[in-house]
Specification:
single chain, 438 residues, alpha+beta, 3 domains, 8-stranded antiparallel beta sheet, 5-stranded antiparallel beta sheet, 16% helix
């Protein structure tokens, strides 16, 4: 028998078919055929093993492949990858000795920096919900009624929070939030001066953030007329304003304005009217307005109100208004004049919130008014937030309110031990039950 040419077709990992040609002497043909069969068997078997490894270990990559491909990864596997990347990024960004991880996807960093040769103590919490799909970020009030206050530890423990930070401004003597506050799509309070707010959007198992000025259009409707209301559950600013008060405000409405009245609405009708305080119906609301407006409404039926929020927040589950802006679209932007914050620009304890290009949340407190930490101005805070990678950032209530809670304890050093009693806080906690897509 003469020398033969053996042609073997091999399918590569790239999907291309290659032909391998060999010339062998006649006496070795049986050996070649046997070797070829064994080689093909090994190739098929290793391909199956490789596929199995790829499915069970998404980071497994076959060796000696010019075109490397990852197999399908399940949501749980992708979350494990995201968790690893989050830890890797945090450890690279900060000194490892200053980092703790109170939960998956949550990092707490303590720093001391020097600004103009003066010390500043900073607490930073970074949150990546893609590294832990159980994480939930949500504002909480101190109690069922808006006129309630409590220390951050009380609010945080009640909600099983991993981390919490003081949030929006509030009226010190009552605890009522000053500015927009929306929780679970329920508008609790309206904006003041259309100040900036952060929106938290939960959709399709993902969390994302938006930051913009908050505008609300509040309309009171009846069977005969429509009129514009100026705010909801907020202190009166002008006697001519028309305001709405819901049961969240408390048991009683505020006093009527000069030349005005308050009217209780239930089942679409005004059931009581007074120039003094009036009880807020549990399943209704109160309108506080100039007398001529309420006298007209008293004769009408099907009275209700409707609230529309500007487009930026149309999908938001939660909104916290505060301000001013610190970083806007990646640039320093401290609009104290436009948002009427001229009185708080000095060096003080501060709280802030922001998010980066990857939609990771960053919350910060800075201690102040002490030798070991002198505090910062709004502009200095803006540079800190930008330096931490924030594309958008805003100021939260500061001064005596500035307090952060991490893993069961207050992590900063507020002037009052444990921090003053607060109206509302932002909490980070883990859901007890989570459905994963398969």
């Amino acid at each position: 028998m003469s020398a033969a040419e053996i042609v073997t077709k091999v399918t590569c990992s790239s999907g291309h078919i290659r032909q391998l040609k060999q010339k062998v002497p006649p006496g070795s043909l049986h050996t070649v055929f046997f070797a070829t069969i064994v080689t093909l068997c090994i190739t098929v078997t290793s391909g199956v093993c490789s596929k199995a490894l790829s499915l069970s270990h998404p980071i497994f990559i076959e060796e000696n492949q010019k075109e490397e491909k990852l197999a399908y990864t399940s949501p749980l596997q992708q979350e494990a990858i995201n968790r690893h990347k989050f830890i890797e990024r945090i450890n690279k960004k900060y000194s490892p000795k200053n980092i703790t991880y109170p939960a998956q996807g949550v990092a707490h960093i303590k720093q001391t920096r020097y600004i103009n040769q003066r010390p500043v103590k900073i607490n930073i919490v970074e949150i990546d919900t893609n590294a832990n799909s159980l994480l939930n970020i949500k504002p909480q009030t101190a109690g069922e009624k808006l006129n309630t206050r409590a220390q951050i530890s009380t609010i945080a423990r009640k909600n099983n929070a991993i981390a919490a930070i003081n949030a929006g401004y509030f009226k010190p003597n009552t605890g009522v939030p000053l500015g927009a506050l929306v929780i679970d799509k329920e508008v609790l309070t309206g904006p003041i001066y259309n100040r900036v707010g952060i929106g938290i959007i939960n959709e399709n198992g993902k969390t994302r953030f938006v930051m913009d000025k908050v505008y609300m259009t509040i309309t009171i409707k009846s069977n005969k007329s429509t009129l514009r209301a100026d705010n909801i559950n907020q202190p009166r600013m002008l006697s001519t304003y028309t305001l709405i008060y819901t049961p969240k405000w408390g048991a009683m409405s505020p006093m009527a304005p000069k030349y005005g009245k308050v009217a209780a609405v239930k089942d679409g009708r005004i059931i009581a009217m007074s120039a003094n305080q009036i009880a807020i119906p549990k399943d209704g609301f109160v309108i506080s307005a100039p007398a001529k407006i309420l006298d007209k409404l008293a004769k009408e039926r099907s009275i209700s109100y409707d609230i529309k929020i500007n487009e930026s927040f149309k999908d938001a589950n939660h909104i916290i208004g505060a301000g001013p802006y610190l970083v806007k679209d990646g640039e320093i932007f401290v609009d104290v004049t436009a948002q009427k914050f001229g009185s708080i620009t000095g060096r003080n304890p501060r709280s802030a919130i922001g998010f980066n290009e990857k939609n990771e949340l960053i919350i910060v407190t800075i201690d102040g008014r002490e030798e070991s930490s002198v505090g910062v101005t709004l502009t200095q805070l803006a540079y800190i937030m930008k330096g931490l990678g924030c594309k958008y950032a805003m100021n939260f209530d500061g001064g005596g309110s500035s307090v952060i809670y991490v893993n069961g304890t207050v992590a900063n050093s507020p002037a009052q031990k444990g921090g003053i009693a607060l109206s509302n806080v932002l909490t980070v906690f883990e859901e007890e039950i989570k459905q994963y897509e398969t």
